[in-house]
UniProtKB/TrEMBL annotation:
SUPFAM superfamilies (UniProt xref): 4-helical cytokines
UniProtKB keywords: Antiviral defense, Cytokine, Disulfide bond, Secreted, Signal
InterPro entries: 4_helix_cytokine-like_core, Interferon_alpha/beta/delta
Signal peptide: 1-23
Protein name, as recorded: IFNe2
PANTHER family listed in its UniProt record: INTERFERON BETA, TYPE I INTERFERON
Pfam families referenced in this protein's UniProt entry, alphabetically: Interferon
């Protein structure tokens, strides 16, 4: 090998290194899982235990199944998009729910922290949000939840149904994140 090309090769590897990363260090080190588990616990504890009622807005399960085998970068984008949508959904919840305000604020700060850290991974991996396969469907799902809340005049029951839907999403997101931490063998 020509040694004169070695510095150029090293420079190329340094520049492209983040693009070839195996994922997001914050997820791989278990921080996402820890924060996700704690936010799920808070969400479970702050609501009513026996809520009857549901809404016919189905979680895009195919999206989560599809992405368990997709590129790591796309999984991170899906997680980040979902967290951002959860934050938007809960934006007005403090004034309109009977939930414990401290628990709610703690939950929202954990969701915000997860979103912030995933955004750092997105920046580090130099990903573009435009190429996110499935993010459009995910945003539409959360838009439908907002419409449901509005149609129910932000009632306590409607918020409880939303809380259950978000809980289900967090569980699926946790499973998706485990595929970033330990990518499936091919």
């Amino acid at each position: 090998m020509d040694l004169r090309r070695l510095p150029g090769l090293c420079f190329l590897i340094l520049c492209l290194g983040p693009s070839f990363s195996l994922g997001c260090k914050w997820i791989q080190d278990g921080e996402y899982k820890h924060k996700s588990k704690f936010s799920l616990t808070l969400l479970k504890d702050m609501g009513e235990k026996d809520v009857s009622g549901d809404v016919n807005i189905i979680i895009p399960e195919e999206l989560y199944k599809l992405h368990s085998k997709s590129e790591i970068e796309n999984k991170i984008l899906i997680l980040h998009t979902a967290l951002g949508q959860i934050l938007k959904l809960y934006k007005k919840s403090e004034k309109r729910t009977t939930w414990d305000k401290d628990q709610l604020n703690h939950f929202l700060s954990l969701i915000h922290r997860q979103s912030y850290e995933l955004n750092r991974c997105i920046s580090f991996l130099q990903m573009t949000r435009e190429g996110c396969a499935g993010c459009k469907e995910l945003k539409q799902y959360f838009k439908n939840l907002k419409y449901f809340l509005r149609s129910q005049k932000y009632s306590t029951l409607a918020w409880e149904i939303i809380r259950k839907k978000v809980k289900d999403n967090l569980i699926r997101m946790d499973l998706l994140a485990s595929h970033v931490k330990n990518p499936p063998a091919i």
